[in-house]
Amino acid sequence: MSPWTRRSGHVVIVLPRGTxxxxxxxxxANEAGVTSGSLVGIGAIEGPRLAWFDRYNKAYRERxxxxxxxxxxxxxxxxxxxNDLRIHCxxxxxxxxxxxxxxxxxxxxxxxxxxxxxxxxxxxxxxxxNGEFDLPLxxx
Length: 140
What we know:
Strand content: over 45%
Oligomer: single chain
Largest sheet: 9 strands, mixed
């Protein structure tokens, strides 16, 4: 169970230390009944796994960064793909030297806290498989 509350139609989520960031967002969205929306967040993440998409090889290339990193910004979408919730986030994180790394968030655990605001959409965002890149992209 993820701690969350509604404020002015938004869902405010506070993920505790040790929570997998992406799973925590998905759990809170499911508990709040949110099937589509946008989100932003800040906090701290341990062992962030970041990725970038290699469009020529149609695959994500991942890199894990050791230690605790400050989440300078986390942005993303909540959508539906084949009737399942899909969380797609990008993150910028700062190390102890205050240099930042960023990319597609592929994983990581909350190091201290992670504070997020999820803005639900009334109409669902749906993803469909894009043949050119072999990725489930938003289909408007």
